[in-house]
Specification:
This protein is an alpha/beta fold and 213 residues long. The chain has helices spanning 35-46, 66-77, 100-114, 139-142, 147-157, 173-180, 184-189, 195-198, 201-211; strands at 26-30, 50-57, 81-85, 121-122, 166-167.
Length: 213
């Protein structure tokens, strides 16, 4: 028993959504305030895009204050930060919704349509399937962080948006470091999703008792 979420009916035929803004220089980045999404924002800003950072509230209860880091980075980069609140209902066995990233990108697309922005969406995932990261693993291991899921999602969206594409500018962790290494102030603003765990006293105590480190 994984989740008991309500599932919407998906029709077998689709109405094509007409948009003439696909080739625009607008780019909306699914933004957590972590190193990869920050590097993605810097990359597209350096390449002349109109960067919009899209941050979902309420889908990451493990780190309820990550929006503060997102605010700080958006201000530093002088780009707009869109914050929208999400909520889930029903019994669930996971702290986070297993399709969290997909839900966030859906929200970014909806925001773009409402605000007449191009449907250019970027995420801070890696494109190299050989890197030693969760992104290289199949869906059953790491859910919607994997390339397999993004490819399936992209194909499903193309039913209504024929030119839709998920943009990923990072090949590997080295790409993130290359982009951020010249601005250590910005680098230090970023926060890994694993970061808070490292500073909890019970984690230190458990590691020390179990592994003597």
């Amino acid at each position: 028993g994984a989740c008991n979420y309500k599932v919407a009916y998906i029709p077998s035929k689709y109405d094509i959504l007409k948009t003439d803004k696909v080739e625009s220089k607008d780019i909306i980045i699914a933004f957590s305030g972590g190193k990869d999404s920050t590097a993605t924002a810097v990359y597209y800003k350096q390449h002349g895009y109109n960067v919009y950072l899209y941050h979902a509230l309420g889908l990451n209860p493990s780190y309820p204050d990550e929006w503060k880091r997102a605010d700080e980075i958006a201000s530093y980069l002088d780009v707009p930060l869109i914050k929208e609140k999400f909520s889930t209902e029903g019994k669930k066995d996971f702290i986070e919704h297993p399709l969290k990233n997909i839900i966030i990108v859906n929200g970014a697309i909806q925001w773009a349509i409402k605000n007449d922005k191009a449907l250019n969406i970027a995420v801070g995932n890696y494109t190299n399937p050989n890197v030693a990261s969760l992104n290289a693993n199949p869906f059953y291991i790491c859910g919607d962080d994997c390339l397999e899921m993004w490819e399936a999602y992209e194909q499903s969206l193309q039913n209504v948006l024929p030119n839709f594409k998920i943009n990923m500018c990072l090949e590997s962790l080295e790409s993130t470091l290359t982009i951020l290494k010249d601005d250590m102030q910005l680098f230090e603003m970023t926060q890994s999703c694993l970061g808070p765990q490292r500073f909890r006293q019970w984690t230190h105590d458990k590691n020390e008792s179990k592994y003597n480190v």
